[in-house]
Design goal:
This is Pleckstrin homology domain containing, family H (with MyTH4 domain) member 1. Residues 759-1089 form the FERM domain. Residues 38-111 form a coiled coil. This protein has 1130 residues and is an alpha+beta fold. The protein folds into eight domains: 24-74; 146-338, no CATH class; 348-443, Pleckstrin-homology domain (PH domain)/Phosphotyrosine-binding domain (PTB) (PH-domain like), CATH 2.30.29.30; 456-560, Pleckstrin-homology domain (PH domain)/Phosphotyrosine-binding domain (PTB) (PH-domain like), CATH 2.30.29; 571-754, Alpha Horseshoe (Serine Threonine Protein Phosphatase 5, Tetratricopeptide repeat), CATH 1.25.40.530; 759-856, Roll (Ubiquitin-like (UB roll)); 867-887 and 889-979, Acyl-CoA Binding Protein; 988-1108, PH-domain like (Roll), CATH 2.30.29.30. It has 27 helices and 30 strands. A seven-stranded antiparallel beta sheet has the order 6-5-4-3-9-8-7, covered by helices on one side. α22 (868-884) crosses α23 (891-906), α22 crosses α26 and α23 packs antiparallel against α26.
């Protein structure tokens, strides 16, 4: 009974309904599995059926191919003889062609042997002719030497006779007047005899018609100037003085060349010298005709002429030869005395031994000293290639003799060069020439003020003592400089014009035709100027056109200080000279002369002297533009019209500096004695910030502004502002670009007198704040940053490493660093011009340049003195690198630093209570998402879903809450402490791809630049290799890529070094930025190490000097070139 009851209880405990449901689920699963199996079987069957069909098709294709092959085989078996015949014919044809080719080869070999025989015979004939020519030349040289000795003896006899006659004549006073009357004809007779000798020498050999006229014309002109000089010399001599007769030996037309080591002198000494006339007294030292001195003095310059084959008299040949090789140098044939620059040579070429910088061994190199620098090559034949090295000479360089008898040291600002000569004589020659160059650089005005602006410049033919040469001439201040070429750094010579006399020579009676000078195709025409410096012989200047003659005559006369006594220049310029005489008396009636006052009519002639008709026409167009600017009212619709007029007119003056004086004269004329009208004063206010007039025109401008300056009137306020602007421009230098639209609008819309800094622009920082900073038309970037640093509480850029950047006009993610010497207005103008060129027709003036002030260089030694503002901006900049993936952080560390930056940006996190309304939670969530967007690395958020972002924001909120109560400065200090643990903190990273022959095998990598050197990182930012700056040989752009050449120690024990060449593919803007950044670090590194300037081997691509440590690319805006090639305005 108990068992039955137990079974019943057990049966009642089983839930059959659940059991049934479970079994039904199992049945359903079995059915699903069976369905899947059936589906898979069906797919498998279909696949097998498809494969069977494909196999059947392949079998059919194979059967068809077998059938085709059987048919081909049958046809081939039916015609075997035909194929064999065709092959046999083809074989015969090839054999015949081979035989023909062999015959042609044999014939050509025979012709080659015949040619070799002919060439050998010709070479033998040439050698025989050369030997005969050599014998003939030797014979002629002996004959000439014999003639020289005979003439020398005859000269001595004639000198003795003249001395005897002189003594006799002095004993008879009545004969002195007769002698004085005969002096001038006697000198003229000498000139005629000299011309006869030269012409007879020319007729000894045939001349080409092309050179006949040129030579005879030059001989006549030289004789003319020689006679003129002798006549002047005769006129100033006292009748009782010794009879002075210029005398030159006949040996001077000899064809014997000088030795190769003879170095000649340049035209700066010949043309700057006064001719010493000989008294025909025997030489006290008794130099014999056979001595080397006599031979050198008797050498003709015709032996060095490569364009003609005739003799040229010594005083008709220009000593300013363009040849620079030693064998092309000859010694002067007359005795001269220096006027203003010594006769020492400033150029030299030759072999020297140079101590290697890497391997301490002497290497023989070909050195060329020219234009104040030394270039050296492996051999003379390599001068057409890039030099192996360069030594820049400056006044700070000096020379020290070495311990050896033939060694010396050239110590420059950057390095010490160890040099040795082949002999003591060569050593002394090099030291003498180098000392001459250093002396000229230390004392010459050009070397002291290289940025001096020339009043007038151009090509002129300079003639003195019969020597003529086409030279590049420039008038700077009161000194007339002349150069061999337009790009030369140092002049051949100079003429000081103070108290000199400048005149125009009347050549209307001259029978000569136009004289062609120097082989440059420059015609002197009939315009000749003569400059008579005080107590010096005259110098003649041959000018090509009347406009150039008038310009040179006026400016030379003004520089000489004699313009008031001569009627030179235009009527306007003459009135300025008269005002200068009365010291600009405000009550003088000259100020009210009609020429100097306002005129409604257009100009018929320019107000100033201009060197060409094109510039004269352009000056009249400038006046029309000024009239249009003045007569149109400044209203909203015409603002752009006035802006365009002002920009075009001032751009023409910048392109053609000759028009700058004219522009000021026109503006002063149109504002003088006129009813108050501000528009012309506004144009003058724009002009004084760009450039200033020269010399007495600048005096005239200052006097005029002083006469009108009055803070009580509107016009007087403009005059006061112009006075301030003139002083600022003279202090900071002239501008490079026309005024920007922003600058013009600021002047047009308000009087700049009321603001010491009439312009302003925002400067943005990395923490999304900005500071509006004022500036004027002459403010430089350095002055601008001083103002920024004072307001922001930061140190100087040279210490902090901060720099000013502009955005790119194209809108690309590029920035351009600015030089300290750049002017802010020039930067804005160039940026606007680039924007217009990139978007023609779409520029509306709504977009302006964006200036950003941020860190560019990072120095560990300067971290101790950081200010709070510097640390704050540096933290934001590092966080920008973190967000862009240029700083190695893990996900956890990225969240930590993001929380720190959130605390700095927003303060304590305000988390709502659980019972608060949902709007507060939504607001907090938005703040967290903004923090993630701004401070969290992008690469960690790319594949996150919304749920993952929500979870990430919760974790961020937790870490942020921990920082509750921390100040911003504490968070910034923690942030920078963590960031500085990375060894490459402060480095700038560039993405690059290595190219052959680079040994790096990575597909993509990072190049990191910091104060220690260039580090190569893999794409996970693990260091691969580091190249310190001491090992860098050269770097920079190479075609489309970046190149780095480094020297590394291969074997420390043996001291061997290897040179590695690394090439990386990068974007062009990044190549430029990387190159300039490395150059800045190298310049800072070399300047901070004591004595490093004598040891560095790096060829840094950057400017020199402390003011140019920041190598910038502000000149590299796209499409920044102006297309104005000639005078164009309207």
């Amino acid at each position: 009974m108990e068992g039955v009851s137990t079974a019943a209880v057990h049966n009642s405990s089983v839930d059959w309904q659940k059991r049934c449901i479970a079994l039904e689920k199992q049945l359903m699963r079995f059915r699903l599995q069976a369905g899947n199996i059936r589906h898979l079987l069906a797919e498998r069957m279909q696949e097998l059926e498809q494969r069977v069909i494909e196999a059947d098709q392949r079998a059919e294709n194979a059967e068809k191919q077998v059938h085709i092959m059987e048919e081909k085989l049958k046809s081939a078996n039916m015609q075997p003889s035909e194929s064999e015949n065709s092959l046999y014919r083809r074989y015969q044809e090839l054999n015949s062609q081979i035989q023909e080719k062999d015959m042609i080869i044999k014939r050509l070999e025979g012709q080659l042997e015949n040619q070799n025989l002919v060439r050998a015979q010709e070479a033998k004939i040439i050698e025989e002719k050369a030997a005969k020519i050599k014998d003939w030349v030797t014979f002629k040289l002996r004959e000439m030497e014999t003639e020289n000795q005979q003439l020398y003896k005859a000269n001595l006899k004639q000198a003795e006779q003249i001395l005897t006659l002189q003594d006799k004549l002095q004993s008879k006073p009545t004969a002195v007047s007769f002698l004085y009357s005969l002096r001038l004809p006697f000198v003229f007779a000498y000139v005629c005899i000299y011309l006869t000798v030269i012409l007879s020498a020319l007729l000894e050999r045939p001349m080409s018609p092309a050179v006949d006229a040129h030579l005879l014309t030059s001989v006549k002109l030289n004789c003319y100037f020689t006679y003129q000089g002798l006549r002047e010399c005769t006129c100033i001599s006292h009748p009782y003085n010794t009879v002075l007769l210029p005398f030159q030996k006949a040996t001077q037309i000899s064809s014997v060349p000088l030795p190769d080591d003879d170095s000649g002198s340049e035209d700066d000494s010949s043309s700057l010298a006064s001719l010493h006339t000989s008294t025909l007294v025997p030489d006290k030292k008794g130099s014999t005709p056979g001595s080397p001195r006599a031979v050198k003095r008797g050498v003709s310059m015709s032996s060095i002429s490569s364009e003609s084959d005739y003799a040229i008299p010594p005083d008709a040949y220009s000593l300013d030869s363009d040849c620079s090789e030693p064998e092309h140098k000859v010694q002067r044939t007359s005795s001269y005395s220096c006027e203003s620059v010594g006769p020492e040579s400033l150029e030299k070429t030759g072999y020297l031994l140079k101590m290697g910088s890497q391997v301490k061994a002497w290497k023989r190199r070909w050195f060329i000293l020219r234009n104040g620098e030394i270039l050296y090559y492996k051999s003379p034949s390599d001068v057409i290639r890039k030099p192996q090295g360069q030594m820049e000479l400056s006044s700070s360089c000096h020379i020290a003799r070495g311990e050896g008898a033939q060694t010396f040291q050239l110590i420059t600002e950057k390095k010490t060069f160890y040099l040795a000569a082949d002999s003591p004589n060569i050593l002394e020659d090099w030291i003498k020439v180098l000392q001459n160059v250093l002396k000229v650089q230390a004392s010459g005005p050009i070397s002291m003020n290289k940025e001096a602006k020339a009043t007038v410049r151009g090509w002129l033919t300079k003639v003195k003592h019969g020597h003529s040469k086409l030279l590049w001439c420039a008038l700077i201040g009161k000194v007339f400089y002349y150069y061999r070429n337009q790009d030369d750094k140092f002049p051949l010579g100079q003429l000081r014009l103070r108290e000199a006399r400048v005149e125009e020579v009347d050549r209307s009676c001259d029978s000569d035709e136009d004289y062609e000078a120097g082989g440059r195709g420059f015609l002197s025409s009939h315009f000749t100027l003569v400059v008579h410096p005080k107590e010096q012989s005259p110098t003649y200047l041959l000018v090509g056109t009347k406009q150039e003659k008038d310009t040179w005559l006026y400016h030379l006369t003004v520089a000489a200080g004699s313009c008031t006594s001569l009627r030179v220049g235009t009527e306007y310029e003459q009135l300025i000279g008269k005002l200068l005489d009365v010291d600009g008396d405000p009550d003088s009636a000259l100020w009210r002369r009609e020429v100097l006052c306002f005129s409604k009519e257009g100009l018929r002639y320019p107000l100033t002297t201009l060197p060409s008709e094109a510039l004269q026409t352009e000056a009249l167009k400038l006046f029309k533009s000024c009239q249009l600017f003045i007569n149109v009212l400044v209203e909203s619709p015409s603002i752009d019209y006035h802006t365009s007029l002002a920009q075009n007119a001032l751009q023409v003056c910048l392109t053609h500096p000759e028009l700058q004086n004219e522009m000021y004269c026109q503006l002063i004329k149109q504002t003088n004695c006129r009813t108050p009208h501000n528009y012309c004063w506004q144009l003058l206010s724009l002009c004084v910030a760009l450039f200033l007039p020269q010399h007495h025109f600048l005096w005239y401008l200052r006097q005029y502004l002083q006469r009108n300056a009055d803070p009580r009137t509107e016009v007087g306020k403009y005059a006061v502002y112009c006075q301030r602007s003139v002083e600022r421009t003279s202090q900071n230098g002239e501008r490079e670009a026309k005024p920007s639209r922003m600058e013009i609008l600021s002047i047009l819309l308000r009087n700049p007198y009321h603001h010491s800094l009439p312009f302003s622009i925002p400067v943005h920082f990395m923490n999304n704040t900005y500071e509006v900073v004022g500036f004027d038309g002459s403010t430089t970037v350095e002055e601008f940053l001083n103002t920024v640093n004072q307001r922001a509480g930061m140190r100087k850029p040279q210490i902090s490493g901060f720099a000013l950047f502009t955005d790119d006009p194209s809108g690309k993610d590029l920035e351009h660093c600015l030089q300290p010497s750049n002017k802010i207005c020039d930067v804005i103008s160039k940026w606007e011009q680039a924007l217009k060129e990139l978007h023609p027709g779409k520029y509306e003036g709504t977009r302006i340049v964006r200036l950003t002030y941020k860190s560019r260089l990072c120095f560990r030694a300067q971290a101790k003195g950081e200010t709070e503002r510097e640390r704050l901006l540096l933290a934001y900049q590092v966080n920008e690198e973190v967000q862009q993936g240029h700083f190695p952080v893990s996900k956890e560390l990225a969240l930590e630093v993001a929380a720190l930056m959130a605390q700095v940006e927003h303060g304590d996190l305000d988390r709502p209570a659980i019972s608060s309304i949902g709007s507060s939670q939504l607001k907090t969530q938005q703040v967290l998402l903004q923090v993630l967007e701004r401070f969290y690395p992008k690469r960690y958020k790319q594949e996150c879903s919304m749920e993952q972002l929500r979870e990430l924001s919760e974790r961020l909120a937790t870490k942020w809450s921990v920082l509750h109560g921390c100040t911003a400065s504490e968070c910034v200090r923690i942030y920078l402490t963590v960031a500085r643990k990375w060894p490459l903190f402060g480095a700038k990273l560039f993405s690059a791809k290595p190219l052959p022959p680079s040994s790096l095998e990575q597909t993509r990598l990072w190049l990191a630049v910091n104060e220690d050197g260039l580090s190569v990182l893999d794409y996970t930012m693990h260091p691969f290799v580091t190249y310190p700056y001491q090992s860098v040989i050269t770097f920079g752009g190479c075609k489309e890529d970046f190149i780095l050449v480094v020297s590394q120690n291969k074997d420390q024990a043996l001291g061997k070094k290897t040179v590695d060449k690394l090439l990386f593919a990068m974007a062009k803007p990044k190549i430029l930025e990387l190159t300039l950044l490395m150059a800045s670090y190298i310049n800072y590194w070399t300047s901070s190490l004591p004595g490093a300037g004598n040891q560095t081997q790096c060829s840094a691509v950057g400017p020199h000097g402390d003011r140019k440590l920041w190598d910038i690319d502000s000149r590299h805006f796209p499409s920044m070139t102006y297309t104005t090639k000639g005078p164009t305005l309207l």
